[in-house]
Write a structure and sequence with these properties.
69% helix
């Protein structure tokens, strides 16, 4: 009886904290959390943060969608502000299932905003746990509800967050090429559905196309040594080429990056090698030669499009910053096609320098930076999974300035039941693969021929 009363009081407190009808109360609670999180270095503060997260988790059971939305916002803020390992250690499964309850079609009558926030929280959870059994559980438990929610096109505002979540959980928790391929196919179906008697084709919006292409390219950047199907690649390159002619600049930029990545991983080189080795005596042996010629023609078209976009004059109402971003990107793509130079990025994180030197690394960095938003710097400084992905070691963790683990961190890493402890070996092995191309396997784009 006493326990039930305690649970009721906890739920009531959570509801009072996150149930708000106006912006001022939201701002007030957010400020209070920020003030708490600005105090660092004591386990008392860690306890307060866990207490706030516990209350937010309790608030996810409330009936009012606005209360759950505020709770999800607080959870995301907490995951961006600090690496919530202790909370994840205790409440991993509970948080995941609460998020999925909001994502699932028809559950709780969730609003599109709530679904988008829940999806983002799942992505934050995946990046926090890193590689290992928990990350794969996130992937396995989430992919079907995300697929079903994407298929429900009642409100497209939720879709970019669902696509980003799908990309992140696959990137972290996908264990084999088939799982990555499955996620990439789900993404394409959002804008290029397989037409059937019960499917109505709806023209996708520019933001939705951008979100799909960006998420798809992010996962493509993890795949190497492909067993390529020429027809699928011809269709995908043709479709992306058509996007370079669209009016929306964000669509053109996303398509340009995806095309540069496709050619960086060696699509045409593969068919060039097969074409040279074929003796051309049967119909099957003619196919590699025909594919090579067709892909060369597509590449020539893409090169001309990129050169034009690199020199595009500003149109009416065109933002100068956006126009310059487009010109710079397509100059880089044109240089890549002509000279083989990939763009190099040097970014300061704290006092440390993070560098990339390929299209795949650049796409991964930009995608994760966009996903984490204000939490990017914190994660890059303290998230071991991202350190492995980008081969980045902050100086404070290096030999010249050894990081002293707190008592809390020591308990986390030494505990035989720790999810982090169990995942460390898998994380290191898997992320070494990431830096070398990460995944080996087959990817095929299920394109609709008459749409391509």
């Amino acid at each position: 009886m006493g326990k039930r009363n305690s649970q009721r009081k906890s739920a009531a407190a959570a509801s009072a904290m996150f149930d708000s009808d106006d912006d001022s109360s939201v701002t007030s609670s957010s400020t209070a959390r920020s003030d708490l999180m600005s105090l660092s270095g004591t386990e008392d503060v860690q306890f307060d943060q866990d207490s706030l997260l516990d209350q937010a988790l309790d608030a996810l059971d409330e009936k009012r969608s606005s209360t759950r939305e505020n709770a999800f916002s607080s959870i995301i803020e907490a995951f961006n502000s600090n690496m919530q390992h202790q909370f994840v250690e205790k409440k991993f499964a509970t948080l995941l299932h609460q998020c999925l309850a909001s994502v699932k079609k028809g559950s709780k009558k969730a609003s599109s905003k709530e679904i988008a926030l829940a999806a983002h929280a799942i992505g934050c959870l995946a990046l926090t746990v890193g590689c290992g059994n928990n990350a794969h559980e996130i992937f396995e438990e989430s992919i079907r509800p995300i697929d079903e929610s994407l298929a429900s096109k009642s409100d497209v505002s939720k879709m970019p967050s669902l696509l980003e979540c799908l990309a992140i959980i696959t990137f972290v928790g996908g264990n084999d090429p088939e799982e990555t391929e499955r996620s990439m196919d789900i993404m394409w179906r959002v804008i290029l559905p397989k037409l059937g008697s019960n499917v109505v084709s709806v023209k996708p919006s520019a933001p939705l196309i951008t979100a799909v292409v960006s998420a798809w390219a992010f996962l493509l950047s993890t795949v190497s040594n492909l067993k390529l199907n020429s027809k699928n690649w011809q269709n995908s390159i043709s479709y992306l080429s058509t996007l370079l002619d669209k009016e929306d600049r964000s669509v053109r930029i996303a398509a340009g990056e995806a095309l540069a990545l496709i050619f960086e991983i060696g699509v045409i080189d593969k068919y060039s090698a097969e074409s040279r080795s074929a003796s051309v005596t049967t119909e099957e042996e003619i196919k590699p030669h025909e594919s090579y010629i067709f892909l060369q023609g597509l590449k020539g078209k893409v090169i001309n499009q990129c050169k034009s976009l690199a020199m595009e004059a500003g149109g009416k109402g065109s933002a100068k910053k956006d126009l310059n971003s487009q010109r710079n990107l397509f100059r880089d793509i044109s240089d890549f096609f002509e000279y083989g130079y990939s763009p190099e990025i040097s970014m300061k994180i704290g006092g440390d320098s993070l560098q990339t030197s390929s299209w795949s690394q650049m796409i991964q960095l930009n995608f994760i930076k966009h996903f984490l938003g204000g939490g990017f710097t914190k994660h890059m400084q303290e998230n071991e999974f991202l350190h492995e992905v980008f081969d980045f070691t902050p100086k404070r963790k290096g030999l010249n300035n050894v990081h002293r683990m707190s008592d809390l961190e020591k308990r986390m890493f030494k505990s035989p039941n720790s999810a982090l402890n169990k995942a460390r070996t898998q994380l290191l092995d898997k992320q070494r693969m990431l830096t070398e191309g990460r995944k080996v396997g087959h990817y095929a784009v299920n394109m609709v021929d008459d749409e391509a």
